Amino acid sequence: MKYKVIGFCVLGGGILVILATLFVHLHKRVGNIQGYNSFLNEERNGCISTKEITGVNVTIKYQPPLYMTLKETEQLKANEIQPSWDSIYKKQTCMTTFLMTIGPDKLKRKDKRHSIMYEGVNDYAEYTQRVLSTNFNMVQQIRLYVNGEERIPVLSLLENVYELSEDRSFVIVFVNNGMKSMKGNDYIFVYDDPFFNIGKVQFHFKGDDLEDANNVIVKR
Fold first, then answer.
1. What is the pTM (predicted TM-score) of this model?
2. Distance (Å, rounded) from C-alpha 116 to C-alpha 143?
3. CA pair distance 39, 135, nearest whole angstrom
4. N or C: which end of the chain has fewer CB within 10 A?
5. How many CA atoms lie within 13 A of 61 on its CB side?
């Protein structure tokens, strides 16, 4: 949480009298969804974390309700569907959403460019099984712990279906159980990988950082 401190004082008769100290919460302002995404991608803001294990990168990025609402409304407009901002935003505030991206470590990889989905597979049958498993069973491999309380995802949605990049990204959605604020909470995202030989990976997020991301102001 970031604050500006503004102090007012007068000096009289050798006595310093503090008249007022104001704490003004500074909300981050961005111009559009691209600016919001850039904010989320800055590690110092505490909304993204990457770990490299055995040549594979796993990145977890928090997706605030406002960001998801902007994203969904843009997709609907692109399909010439008039979105209802209020209903979409209300739906998103009932969820806690993360984006999980898995891809090859491009600095350590020695072989030619290929999708992470081919990593460690020996034939087409194994590749097909991996595609099916990641599409339909990913929720079984993920847990979110909020102050130690386990939460199971209700949805895992594959983003880049057509493998236009080397990475695979999954939108992971949890029900937030009526929690109104993330302040002061501790979030641990756990991915127990059965696909790419990287084992169990944990990512820690501070609730204060996630709450700050929720309060970003976007020009609409």
1. 0.83
2. 22
3. 29
4. C
5. 20
- Residues 6 or more apart from 43 whose CB is under 8 A from it? 49
d(CA 196, CA 219): 41
- C-beta of residue 193 within 8 angstroms of C-beta of residue 154: no
CB 213 within 8 A of CB 62: yes
Q: Transcribe 156-187 into DSSP letters.
A: EEES-TT--SS-EEEEEEEE-TT----TT-EE
Burial class (CB in 10 A: 0-12, 13-18, 19+), 202: middle
Q: What is the DSSP string of 197-208?
A: S-EEEEEEEEHH
Euclidean distance between CA atoms 127 and 92, whole angstroms: 34
Express each pLDDT in 88-139 by its tens digit.
999 999 999 999 999 988 766 655 567 888 888 888 898 889 888 888 889 9
- Report residue 71 as tokens: 């994203």
Q: Which residue has tokens 């979030």? A: 187
